[in-house]
Amino acid sequence: MDFTMRPKAQEILDKVRRMVRDEIIPLDHEFLAEVGKGADRFERTPRQIEILEGLKAKAREQGLWNLWRTKALTGAGPDALTTVEYAQLAEEMGRSHLGAEVFNCSAPDTGNMDVLARFGTEAQQRRWLDPLLAGEIRSAYLMTEPDVASSDATNIALSAVRDGDHYVLNGEKYWGSGAGDTRCGLYIVMVLTDPEGDKHRRHSQILVEPGTPGIEILRPMEIFGHDDAPHGHMHIRFTNVRVPADQLLQTEGDGFLIAQGRLGPGRIHHCMRLIGQAERALDLMCDRALSRTAFGKKLADLGANHDIIAESRIAIEQARLLCLKAAWMMDTAGPREAAVWVSQIKVAAPRMAQQVIDEAMQMFGATGISQDTPLAHMWMNARMLRFADGPDAVHRRVIGRTELRKHEAG
Amino acid sequence: MDFTMRPKAQEILDKVRRMVRDEIIPLDHEFLAEVGKGADRFERTPRQIEILEGLKAKAREQGLWNLWRTKALTGAGPDALTTVEYAQLAEEMGRSHLGAEVFNCSAPDTGNMDVLARFGTEAQQRRWLDPLLAGEIRSAYLMTEPDVASSDATNIALSAVRDGDHYVLNGEKYWGSGAGDTRCGLYIVMVLTDPEGDKHRRHSQILVEPGTPGIEILRPMEIFGHDDAPHGHMHIRFTNVRVPADQLLQTEGDGFLIAQGRLGPGRIHHCMRLIGQAERALDLMCDRALSRTAFGKKLADLGANHDIIAESRIAIEQARLLCLKAAWMMDTAGPREAAVWVSQIKVAAPRMAQQVIDEAMQMFGATGISQDTPLAHMWMNARMLRFADGPDAVHRRVIGRTELRKHEAG
Amino acid sequence: MDFTMRPKAQEILDKVRRMVRDEIIPLDHEFLAEVGKGADRFERTPRQIEILEGLKAKAREQGLWNLWRTKALTGAGPDALTTVEYAQLAEEMGRSHLGAEVFNCSAPDTGNMDVLARFGTEAQQRRWLDPLLAGEIRSAYLMTEPDVASSDATNIALSAVRDGDHYVLNGEKYWGSGAGDTRCGLYIVMVLTDPEGDKHRRHSQILVEPGTPGIEILRPMEIFGHDDAPHGHMHIRFTNVRVPADQLLQTEGDGFLIAQGRLGPGRIHHCMRLIGQAERALDLMCDRALSRTAFGKKLADLGANHDIIAESRIAIEQARLLCLKAAWMMDTAGPREAAVWVSQIKVAAPRMAQQVIDEAMQMFGATGISQDTPLAHMWMNARMLRFADGPDAVHRRVIGRTELRKHEAG
Amino acid sequence: MDFTMRPKAQEILDKVRRMVRDEIIPLDHEFLAEVGKGADRFERTPRQIEILEGLKAKAREQGLWNLWRTKALTGAGPDALTTVEYAQLAEEMGRSHLGAEVFNCSAPDTGNMDVLARFGTEAQQRRWLDPLLAGEIRSAYLMTEPDVASSDATNIALSAVRDGDHYVLNGEKYWGSGAGDTRCGLYIVMVLTDPEGDKHRRHSQILVEPGTPGIEILRPMEIFGHDDAPHGHMHIRFTNVRVPADQLLQTEGDGFLIAQGRLGPGRIHHCMRLIGQAERALDLMCDRALSRTAFGKKLADLGANHDIIAESRIAIEQARLLCLKAAWMMDTAGPREAAVWVSQIKVAAPRMAQQVIDEAMQMFGATGISQDTPLAHMWMNARMLRFADGPDAVHRRVIGRTELRKHEAG
């Protein structure tokens, strides 16, 4: 088990770290404060465009672009990063709000680009993959539905019926993350094509152009009351939406297969970004503990505060190492073998981040949940990730079954 | 130890329960959805006024008004409720967002009214207590300051200097809850009158009319990004604010004394309202567990869900009983003896509520953190109460010292 | 809900408290240190007999005898204690190792006496109940079996086949607590009489004289390596043991019915004794925190120790109140309604005690797990009670189902 | 960061694993069951000698001897194992009770041998190091004292006064692990040589021959009531014990320096052995979950059991990775830099093991705490390690201070 960064990767890491610290974090707050200043919360303001596109240009100049294309994904050649290496970059990006997008590494685009690269036709790739790789459009992945427990993906019910050389889509999706973005140029939609088929061959994935007639954006879903504009987690209704049949990914029934490969790396990225957020929360916690005085002492020297800081450090280190292990499994044993490791981090990392950020908030007093620190925002993100890409309970189920299977065999 | 409700109190409880369930909860969502529809987020909309004043009128008609005036507070006569009895009413009110205000029982008004009733002059009472009791104005209690660790109240620094028959106030307060409300007609302000005096005689409390020249509302403090309009937790600057000296409460140096008596009952009310919220979260959790299906089973029958429900039940019962014990101490031994019991519930109840609501959110999947349930709102309220009226660490310190003192003596 | 002690009960409580503190605790250690000094670990030494019988005599003299006979059990008359009152006595007894037996209130005898009083014939009562009430013999309750998951009592398999006017018993029981005691004069045995019958009518309970031919004591079960001599938790084999048919309790098939009523009060007693142990652990913790110095400070003033003490206090109070609530339900609503409350405390109290005692051990450093404090012994007892009378998971299942049933109905 | 085993180390690992599984574990129980069968609990029985020496001979034959001599310790040459490699061997050894001693890798001997190799004179090494390396004698490390909080080592008070060419020792030590062993041929004793000196130069370490006149073994300290014979954690009194001055290690005042270097690797070994124990507990838990039936289902399929197994797996993996990280720091950055990492695992690993073993016990029902599984024994060992080599609180303090120091600088 080897988590070493090669010198070349280390060099990239240093650049990413510097850019996050010196250029991105200083603009995060201003970017977020712009939300709602335009006519429409989901229309980016000129200043938001200036901030983001400016940073993207700088990233591209330094070659810090599409770094997610690891060997395990669609990367190739001796220079492609390993998942272990990229994970450490993702941690740095996670310290800032805008980081992932600046380096064209944000969810759900990376997963969608990977799907297109693996499973798309030449035509599909030219139409959607190229502008995604260029950072010109963004995309959404529509899986979760309001009326069924989507954590059991066999429940997915949005119907796609073949009619001539089109599929006709009817149903609803929600939590379509990124679908609020005015630049969103693609939905990858999990649909039910064969309701009577074998449980894991009933579904397909289809590429849908936003704005196709019959698509109605009902509302943004809110996370603790926030619409997360201009990104947005949209609730979308499909009513007789006609999609050309050549926009299907692979063949009918491949929906599960495609979905399965898609989620592993994305979960590692999410988790490593959370590690970055937890580190930042611990930084803030320590700074506050040293700079604030009560009862005649620094907060650091009061009560359990040393212990809280120590436990936060231990928790972060353990979660990071487990993420790296999952990344290493992805690199060396492939996504199928890595899956149970990814489930482990999907349980461990968001919970850890939630806990560490919560302690940081507490160290700040009421300021910790206010607009004066980024902690509340970070906490909500961590909390949301205990649902996104599968709730904890489903991942624990996977881990438990895998463990028991070893003993059934023996 | 006796937590019995007398028949008369039980009758009130039944009425409150019915009104909360049948009339208030059904309007909560509409009231909240109105926020931001007016010109100013802090200006109540006509529909908000209609909802709230309508409910208040109904409450008053049924005699469900100012129920907080227990014997332990300014109530009197054989009919006054005990703290134990009122606590059980507060639980019911807590199940809804508007409940407390509908019955003229909301924070910080109840504490402020109590202070006026105990410590106010006749003139002060006529000017502010009467309209508060009538539900015509609201009030704020300005204690916390941005620049000092206010959990140690000896740090409070907003200066009040005597100048003729006025005090001149300079400094800042934040988290002035309720100061955003356009009906807010009174600030009770903790001020530093004698910086060189004995540590517990340096401060005073003074009644300030909002809008007095020199008062500047800088911004609402946000709780997880929410301004809590039209209530508001305001950040306020005082610049040479001249306040008539007869608006001082009692005499100079009594600030601590007044503060100490004020917080105990309010904390019990907060905690009991949280019990109500936790009960509602458990209701929602169970309903979801029974109505949603995954992997061929009701959620209720999957994995640890029975255990989660059981642990939630145990946690709620324990917290409620401890709150009742604190209330009983307030009734029978008085606020000084009750203080350490109040500290216990102040640690236990918000944490419990936070945990139970968190589990309820998780049972719902991502819907649990969305606008489709009241859970996210309830969770943020519980989280905030781990700071409000003293952070957990300060209360634990009080409890620990009390415990150790028994052994030092022995 | 009323937990008040009547003056008469309070008087008894004061006497019990004094006797535990002044006479029993000072002899606990010597009693335990005698174990193994005789020829046989299960033969009480002369000094053990002297200690125990001396204390029993003193208890009887003061009328502190068979206090467990509450109204809810076989007590009667206006003077009988309520379960709520007795629970508070049990807490005091629990502070010492010998307490419960000194007052003739120890498990499993109280449950067995209650069963005999309710369900025994006149002849059965004269033969076994009278000497049990007099503290002359002791008894065991044989339920758990090594080969089946006995937490699901329908699994119980020890066979009792009618043969003329005898039953012939074959099978094994283990964890027969008290069966190691040389004074043990009765086994109440749960047996399978009708393997094909209705699931809850298959079993019966039968009174068995220890020493009946065919009974073989295989070994004492060990708790963390301790045989708990001279009490003992025995593993017993029955081979063609012939028991007169008139020793059956009630009629065939009543086994469940009898078992059900038996366990509720016993669990309350166990839990309240654990509260007593937790209080004693907290006492010890505080004393150590004040008397030991490291890094130039009292332990009390180092790190999280105030917080640990505070959390222990909160945890004990909550568990005690919940136990009293369960006792109050037993008194006012009866055992069937109280059952789910008993399940709640059965989960909450041992876990709480285990946690508080664990923290106390940690405060002592390695001394905390050594023979120099009673903490290790107390901890093992608390841990054992997470299995005895039903493991946590089974109780959580009961609570969860009860909670869900409220919502299924609604 | 690289945790790779070189092929040669992997080969050793495979051999160790096989020997532990096939030869050591099958004899563990018999060895332990022999305790107390001789005249003296601390006199090994012939069968114990046969078992242990037989296994040691087999280990030596295969070259599995003194494997602890890593490069970071006194090992040298290209073939010496790294700490990372040895840690993985220690995990395997930890699965069994006798494992560590079979490979001559048990505490406190490894630490003592290392001290002798680094700091001993030629004469000291010939007299004590050689027979220790040969597995002919064993040793104890006497640090902890009953009368002072020894977690703060500056408290150590056992006095050594120079008198001619001897030191005269007076005082008490307890928890002298291994001092009960009849083969114990050396005490390394931390003594106070200069009470007035600089805080970290007051102490020295001296080599003492057991049986020197004036040494009195008062009693074995018990761990949850167990004397851990024939190893023993002895309480020892020194009364005017005259020790030749040339048995001092290095020079007067070096006591701290020697102690500091000693404990790091030993803690890593302890923690990795606990990982092995936790893995074995999880194995047992899974086997039980699959083989036992209640309420018509395998335990595995009841309630939270999948979740419990999953959480155990996650906890073990995280702790193992953190131990390997600490080992890697020891290898690459040296003991001073590694210290805070060692503190992290010292907090995390015993707690994790305690928790996983506790869950395993619970899965077994009461059998889990009985002599029918090794779980209770393993649990007590894990619990003890939350004190041994520093209690959790002291390690958290180290971690917290290190973390804060980063921020004080910045």
TrEMBL record, chains A, B, C, D:
<feature type="domain" description="Acyl-CoA dehydrogenase/oxidase N-terminal">
    <location>
        <begin position="8"/>
        <end position="136"/>
    </location>
</feature>
<dbReference type="GO" id="GO:0033539">
    <property type="term" value="P:fatty acid beta-oxidation using acyl-CoA dehydrogenase"/>
</dbReference>
<keyword id="KW-0560">Oxidoreductase</keyword>
<dbReference type="GO" id="GO:0005737">
    <property type="term" value="C:cytoplasm"/>
</dbReference>
<dbReference type="Pfam" id="PF02771">
    <property type="entry name" value="Acyl-CoA_dh_N"/>
</dbReference>
<keyword id="KW-0274">FAD</keyword>
<dbReference type="InterPro" id="IPR013786">
    <property type="entry name" value="AcylCoA_DH/ox_N"/>
</dbReference>
<dbReference type="GO" id="GO:0003995">
    <property type="term" value="F:acyl-CoA dehydrogenase activity"/>
</dbReference>
<dbReference type="Pfam" id="PF02770">
    <property type="entry name" value="Acyl-CoA_dh_M"/>
</dbReference>
<feature type="domain" description="Acyl-CoA dehydrogenase/oxidase C-terminal">
    <location>
        <begin position="253"/>
        <end position="402"/>
    </location>
</feature>
<dbReference type="InterPro" id="IPR009075">
    <property type="entry name" value="AcylCo_DH/oxidase_C"/>
</dbReference>
<dbReference type="InterPro" id="IPR036250">
    <property type="entry name" value="AcylCo_DH-like_C"/>
</dbReference>
<protein>
    <submittedName>
        <fullName>Acyl-CoA dehydrogenase</fullName>
    </submittedName>
</protein>
<comment type="subunit">
    <text>Homodimer.</text>
</comment>
<dbReference type="InterPro" id="IPR046373">
    <property type="entry name" value="Acyl-CoA_Oxase/DH_mid-dom_sf"/>
</dbReference>
<feature type="domain" description="Acyl-CoA oxidase/dehydrogenase middle">
    <location>
        <begin position="140"/>
        <end position="236"/>
    </location>
</feature>
<keyword id="KW-0285">Flavoprotein</keyword>
<dbReference type="InterPro" id="IPR009100">
    <property type="entry name" value="AcylCoA_DH/oxidase_NM_dom_sf"/>
</dbReference>
<comment type="similarity">
    <text>Belongs to the acyl-CoA dehydrogenase family.</text>
</comment>
<dbReference type="InterPro" id="IPR006091">
    <property type="entry name" value="Acyl-CoA_Oxase/DH_mid-dom"/>
</dbReference>
<dbReference type="GO" id="GO:0050660">
    <property type="term" value="F:flavin adenine dinucleotide binding"/>
</dbReference>
<dbReference type="InterPro" id="IPR037069">
    <property type="entry name" value="AcylCoA_DH/ox_N_sf"/>
</dbReference>
<dbReference type="InterPro" id="IPR050741">
    <property type="entry name" value="Acyl-CoA_dehydrogenase"/>
</dbReference>
<dbReference type="Pfam" id="PF00441">
    <property type="entry name" value="Acyl-CoA_dh_1"/>
</dbReference>
